[in-house]
Amino acid sequence: MTLGSEWKFSQVFGEQTPGDDIQDCDILSAMEFDKNGDHLAVGDQGGRVIIFERQTGKEGLFDSSSRRDSGQFSLPLWQHPEFKYKTEFQSHEPEFDYLKSVEIEEKINKIRWCTKLNRSLFLLTANDRTIKLWKIKEQKVKKVKQMDINPFVTSENSLLADKSFMSGQSEPSHANGTRLEWTDKMNGTLPSHLADITNVASRRCRRVYAHAHDFNINSISNNSDGETFLSGDDLRINVWNLEVRDQCFNIIDMKPNNMEDLTEVITSAEFHPFHCNLLAYSSSRGFIRLVDMRKSALCDHSVKILQDGGSRGPKTLFSEIITSISDMKYAMDGRHILSRDYMTLKLWDTHMDTSPVATYKIHEHLRPKLSKLYTNDAIFDKFDCCLNGDGLQFATGSYSNHLRIFSCGAENEDGITLEVRKSPNRKPTSQATTRPRRSSLSNLTRGFYRQGQDSSENEISCNLKSKLLHLAWHPTHNLIACSVGSSLFMYHA
Length: 493
Fold this sequence. Notes:
By secondary structure, this protein is mostly beta strands. It is about 5% helix and about 35% strand.
């Protein structure tokens, strides 16, 4: 699929009408497709997780039998998956750490799917301090049908008194010519002609991984071995076994003896897609470090550091802030890494550590307005990034609900810009007033932080309150899911 292909609106869930107020707890904060693209999990600031599943009613087009062994769909390119609501559950609740006098929000920071087992779905969800493993399983439930009551059976007692019900033996017909016949013996189930069978998704928390992070969790990533996963906060990265909830192994610890000596923090971490011993993590200084866990038990000394040598120059008040990497993703080939900082989207080759392969400018027109963005805290916004299955197209978000899509090697370096909205001519809806920004460690390390202040946004040529922060690319189709406030939008090409 080339970049010139037309991207079209596909679906929207939870669309807000003009003038509706959006509650803080309803704002979406994380999303993730599973490996096959059959399910999409979305988390919000209220601690809820909503699961969507791909529709299979269109003549079986998306049944598992239509996939090749490689996991790709044997479908024409013009066909695209459509999703429907499956279930939702409350994953996290607000807590209070009495030892540190810290309020822990229920907001879902990260969601990651685990290996599917015996038709059961497993996923990890995390808030600032706690990670949970959830199991979602479909169960067949029988519901009693609505039936016309036999006028000659006037009560439950008269039905139970009938010998044909108690013993299953055939009895002579009643005087009215009717017979109480039960085709199934009552072994704890209802007869099929008396019940409707429906599929209900049950969910259960299998593990709780807690008390291992002193700072806000910003990353969780499953290992290709299917047994372990990592969790990262501002200063540490831990490795867990999925079956062990009360022990983890700390592989990276950047906490200095004196916190005044702190110069950078971890912003994102992810395992290699198929080498279980390799991982990468990014920092607030714009570096990406590649780690091989076979080198040593404590991986503070990285194997290789990827840094943009072309960005060296005079440091300004804001240059260190905008170089902080907010998100990082491995391509499926395991060689390339996509990263997003405040102003740019960068594609890295792990064999080249001096500069990125390509740099895409997201909202360069805001560079002269960095002081205004700092005043109203917009400069600290953290945007996600994502790649398509073959690693040749990339996407990220911007302000005014803009979705930016780029292609590797395309002549048009500006890519494609879409305004994420079902009705493009509709006036922008007012976003909810977000909570006061809490002082995060990543902000304090730069020495720049203060409470957001009201400023004139008329001088900035975009709507800073309407921002597209979170998005995910379907693993096998050109379908992008992205969130705007409390709404989930999908676009396809």
